[in-house]
Amino acid sequence: MINFITMSEYRGPRLRIIRRLGRLPAFTRKLPKQSKRHIKRASGQKKKTQFAYRLIEKQKLLFYYGVSEKQLVKYVKIARKSQEVSGLFLLQLLARRLDNITFCLGWAPTLPFARQMVNHGHITVNQNRVTIPSFSCSPGQTIGIRNTAKTRKLVAENLRIGDTTLPYFVSFNPDNITGIINQIPTRGDVSLNLTDRLVIEYYSNRLLSITLGLFVSNFNIYILYF
């Protein structure tokens, strides 16, 4: 079983994470070197349980998008209440976050860096400064940068449009450094090797256990009261 602390608290080596979870381009651009020791250790691992597979997929989302456990549970609850496929809707909610849009446009080398840019007020939505990384962008909105020398220099230093492929749901105008949300993201717009169904299953079982636990606890209190 893999036990990680959430990305919002993690300050350790990132290569250690991607060795276990696989490549996470938004988390770090570094690639681990496959040594004989790691290959031997991987070949000697025991067969994973179904719970372990679900846990790994959940951890991928946590570290890729840099959200906390509490935030991800909130997104899962929204996705389960929607009329769409829960797994796809969950990915769409995460992909529409402003920090992820900033990363997809190539203005930051990693998503944690993009989140910091949003926090510091470098990013605008429809020419209004937004400092909330979890801000949900909608089709038709224009994403830009503040018209200051510091912001322009920061984006110019980190602009990586030359070595990345834009997802179809956004477009980039290099002349005025703006991006436009064309449509709701599709599954192909998420560059993460993930089985979203397993994430929903993980939280479905977890939320069911919590609900049953609260029911039993309240029932015991009711019996003691009477």
Question: Would you kindly provide a brief summary of this structure?
Answer:
The protein is an alpha+beta fold and 226 residues long. The chain has three domains: 1-66, no CATH class; 67-96; 97-188, RNA-binding S4 domain (Structural Genomics Hypothetical 15.5 Kd Protein In mrcA-pckA Intergenic Region, Chain A), CATH 3.10.290. The chain is built from nine helices and five strands, in the order H-H-H-H-H-H-H-E-E-E-H-E-E-H.
Notes on the structure:
With about 230 residues, the chain is an alpha+beta fold. It folds into three domains: about 1-65, no CATH class; about 65-95; about 95-190, Structural Genomics Hypothetical 15.5 Kd Protein In mrcA-pckA Intergenic Region, Chain A (Roll). The chain has helices at about 15-20, 35-45, 50-65, 70-80, 85-95, 100-105, 110-120, 150-160, 195-225; strands spanning about 125, 130, 140-145, 170-175, 180. A five-stranded antiparallel β-sheet has the order 2-1-3-5-4. Helix 3 (about 50-65) crosses helix 9, helix 4 (about 70-80) crosses helix 5 (about 85-95) and helix 6 (about 100-105) packs across helix 7 (about 110-120). It is globular and about 55 Å long. The protein starts with 13 loop residues before the first helix and ends with a helix. About 30% of the residues are buried. Residues about 1-5 and about 210-225 have low confidence and may be disordered.
